[in-house]
Amino acid sequence: MCEARPLREVLLQRFTRPLGLNHMSYGLPLQQHALAAENAFTGPRLVPPIGYIAKRILGVRFEDVATISNEPGFLSATIPAGNIYASADDACLFFQMLLNGGELNGTRVLEPETIARAVAPIGYLRLDSSLLLPVRFSAGMVSGERLLGLYGLNCAEAYGHLGFINIICWADPARDISVALLNTGKSMAVDGVARLAQLVGAISRHCPRT
């Protein structure tokens, strides 16, 4: 029988410590709360129907989510879909491990077959009701697309995931890059979303396929 262990402990023992990462953890111990960058709501307030959609997805008003995410209870909690804390370096190293077939600096934590199954796209491109974007999922990631996708143009081999609004991390085997964009200013302003999309597109455009 498998021993039941806290999810935070599994992450630390299976990935964070073996890979030599500094901060990757579900939640943070109290003595590390001061290390967490504070999230802040920025930009104009959401108007209907966007405000209603955001509240349906998040459970509270969009304007309140950043404040809640800075509270001690949230910082300490284990929320599987919502509060892995890591530096950009940690996130990039994790995705580099995936690009390397499960090892980093001589330490293996996953088998190549496990990664292949986790990142292989499943099903068809469809509109995701939460992201409100046309995406294709794998067993554990959001997949890139041959035309326009979450990671830019011609990124069918890429895989990664979105975090809280404008956090996005991914790996692209065709370009041999791992990327982590961790932003603390939370906004649904059209110009902000457009600039993030431009930045993501520029990264893939200026990193040639190998």
Produce a short descriptive summary.
By secondary structure, the chain is α+β, with helices and mostly antiparallel strands. About 35% of the residues lie in helices and about 20% in strands. The longest helix has 17 residues, at about 190-205.
Describe the structure.
There is one protein chain. This protein is of the alpha+beta class and 210 residues long. It has a single domain, classed as DD-peptidase/beta-lactamase superfamily (Beta-lactamase). 33% of the residues lie in helices and 20% in strands. The chain is built from 7 helices and 14 strands. It has helices at residues 7-16, 50-58, 62-69, 72-76, 88-99, 112-119, 190-206, and strands at 25-26, 40-41, 84-85, 103-104, 107-108, 122-127, 134-137, 142-143, 148-149, 152-153, 159-162, 168-172, 177-181, 185-186. It has a 6-stranded antiparallel β-sheet, covered by helices on one side. Strands 1-3 form a two-stranded antiparallel ribbon. Strands 2-14 form a two-stranded parallel sheet. The longest helix is centred in the last third of the chain and has 17 residues, at 190-206. The protein is globular and about 50 Å long. The mean pLDDT is 89.
List keywords for this structure.
single chain; 210 residues; alpha+beta; Beta-lactamase; six-stranded antiparallel sheet; two-stranded antiparallel ribbon; 7 helices; 33% helix
Neighbour order of strands in the largest sheet:
6-7-8-11-12-13
Overall spatial form: globular
Name of the CATH class: Alpha Beta
Range of strand content: 15-25%
CATH superfamily: DD-peptidase/beta-lactamase superfamily
Uncertain ranges: none
Query: Which second-level CATH architecture applies?
Result: 3-Layer(aba) Sandwich
Helical fraction equals 25-40%
**Within the CATH hierarchy, at the fold level, what is the topology?**
Beta-lactamase
Q: Rg from C-alpha positions?
A: 18 Å
How many beta-strand elements?
14
